[in-house]
Amino acid sequence: MVVSGSNLGVLVLHGFTGSPASMRSLAEGFAGRGYTVEMPLLPGHGTDLADMIPTRWDDWYGEAHAAYHRLLDQCDAVAVVGLSMGGGLTLALAEEHPEIPAIGLVNPMCMPLTAELLEGIDALLEAGLESFESIGSDIAKPDTSELSYPGTPLEAAKSLSHGMETVEANLGKIVSPALVLTSLQDHVVPPESAATLLAGVSGPVRQILLEQSFHVATMDFDQELVETELFAHLAEHLGTNS
Questions:
Q1: Pick the catalytic residue: 138, 161, 176, 215?
Q2: Structural domain contains residue 31
Q3: Which of 22, 84, 137, 213 is catalytic?
Q4: Which residues, listed in sequence order, are joined to residue 3 by a DSSP beta bridge?
Q5: How do residues 101-148 score in pLDDT, each as one tens digit?
Q6: Is the pTM of this model over 0.85?
Q7: Per the domain annotation, does 242 fall within a domain?
Q8: Residue numbers of the domain that contains 228
Q9: How far apart are the C-alpha atoms of 28 and 58, rounded to whole Å?
Q10: Do the beta carbons of residue 241 and residue 161 sit within 8 Å?
C-alpha cells in the first residue's frame, strides 16, 4: 500500500508471519489525515508459508529500510509505526536514524527469544521440521483474523531472534519520541519486553496499557484507542496537514 499525500510521511510495518491486513485500518487513517503513507509487504509474507522459510532478518529490515528511504525521497520527515516484529523493525530504524521525528510501537518485539525456546527450535530443526504451530491472530475479538500464516518458519524465527539481539543492545541510541501500546494479555511477546524497552531508550517515551486486547491490538477491542493515540502522537511530533 502506497498513498501519496503531503510532505509528511508515515511508514507502517506489520508483524512476523502476518500481513498488512493487521495494519490496514491504521494506515488508511494516516492517509485520511493527509500523510504520505507506505505499508510494505515484508519479504516472504502474504503469500504462502513456503515463501517465508528462506527469508531472514536482513530481508525484512532491508525492505523496511528501503521503504523509509522511498518515503524520504518524497517527504521532508517520516515517522514509523510498527506491530510486533514491525515494532522491532521500527526500533532498528530509529537506532540507525535519529532524525525520525516519532515512532509508534504496538506490542513490539525488542528482545531475543529465550534460550529454552531457541533450544526447542534447534531440536525441531534437527528432527527435520521446517515450521511449527502458528503464532498469528492472537486476538481477543471473536471471528477476527490478521491473515497470518498457519505455521511459523523455524530458521526465520531464529534469524528474528538474532536481529532482536542487536535491537536490544542498541536501544540507548533511540532518541525519537516513542509511544508504546502494550496489551496486558499478550501470548506472543513477553511482558518484560515492554519494561526493557521503556528502560532502554534515551528519548521521551510514553506507555499506554491496553486492557481488552491480545497481541494484535490493531484489530482487537482496543483498536479505536490504539488509532486515536497514534494519530495524536504523530500529530504532536511529526506535524499535521491542516
A1: 215
A2: yes
A3: 84
A4: 37
A5: 999 999 999 999 999 999 999 999 999 999 988 877 789 999 888 778
A6: yes
A7: no
A8: 2-237
A9: 27
A10: no
- Catalytic position from the list 19, 22, 45, 186: 186
* Residue 164 cell numbers, joined: 532482536
Question: Would residue 186 show up in a list of annotated catalytic residues for this protein?
Answer: yes
- Do residues 120 and 169 lie in contact, with contact meaning Cβ atoms separated by under 8 Å? no
Q: Is 215 a catalytic residue?
A: yes
Number of separate domains in the chain: 1
CATH code, domain with 135: 3.40.50.1820
DSSP state of 187: S
Torsion 98-94-65-14 (CA) sign: negative
The label of the residue with cell 525519537 reads: 176
Residues 6+ positions from 29 with CB-CB distance below 8 Å: 227, 231
HSE-up of residue 173 (Cα within 13 Å, Cβ side): 16
User: Which residues make Cβ contacts (< 8 Å) with residue 130, sequence separation at least 6?
Assistant: 53, 153, 154, 155
